[in-house]
Write a structure and sequence with these properties.
heterodimer, A: 138 residues, mainly alpha, B: 75 residues, two-stranded antiparallel ribbon, 8% strand, globular
Chain lengths: 138, 75
């Protein structure tokens, strides 16, 4: 398994775990308050994502220092770009849906959560797509 | 996962084994790609760029068509 694929696995797991944590937090606070929860309640989530990402990247760099320092090669670069393209489309679609929801509900907190949720989903899909494409061309 | 076979055939593994033998990592380092990319080229699931193809051929001291070929039966 190449370093890029290992990194994609690591970050896909981080995004899946953080996404599940975000959803749990969101629904727990929504049920309690009846409306989209305030943004400050998601500070623990932000800290979780940052710390988990640093831990995963540090572990990968320790396990594969040469791969961590190397640039993506000619086979890996188009895969990373293609995954990034589809991820961008997903995030863009989520942003448009969030704006439509804002026009309908006039809830800026919900707008924020939909965009952040879309970002988590798009990042998760980006890493999963990288894994699939790396495996398909291996 | 099944990878699609491409119409470009190659003798990279054969030439690599004649030279040394040279590992996939050694060849990858010599031409600036990862070991996994060399493995994919040898399996026929990835066609290298023209630049990498020339680098491989020059490294083995042979012509491009001595390393790479075209499979007429491939779709």
């Amino acid at each position: 398994m190449s370093f890029r694929e290992m990194a994609a696995w690591g970050m896909a797991l981080v995004m899946a775990a953080s996404g599940a944590y975000y959803l749990k937090l969101f629904f727990a606070l929504t049920v309690a308050g009846g409306v989209a929860p305030p943004l400050a309640a998601f500070i623990p989530y932000t800290i979780f994502v940052i710390v988990a990402s640093i831990i995963v990247q540090t572990l990968l760099a320790i396990l594969a220092p040469i791969g961590a320092n190397a640039r993506a090669d000619e086979r890996e670069r188009p895969i990373i770009e293609r995954a990034g393209y589809w991820s961008g489309l997903v995030h863009g679609t989520a942003a448009v849906l969030a704006l439509m929801a804002f026009l309908h509900f006039s809830d800026s907190q919900l707008l924020f959560h939909m965009i952040v949720g879309g970002l988590i989903l798009s990042q998760f899909l980006e890493y999963v797509l990288q894994i699939v494409l790396f495996r398909r061309s291996a | 996962m099944m990878s699609k076979r491409l119409p470009i055939t190659n003798r990279v593994r054969e030439l690599r084994e004649q030279h040394g033998p040279m590992s996939q990592s050694d060849l990858g380092d010599a031409i600036g790609v990862t070991r996994q990319t060399i493995a994919a080229i040898e399996k026929g699931s990835y066609s290298p760029s023209l630049e990498s193809a020339f680098r491989i051929a020059r490294l083995f001291g042979v012509g491009l068509e001595d390393v790479f070929g075209w499979d007429e039966d491939a779709k």
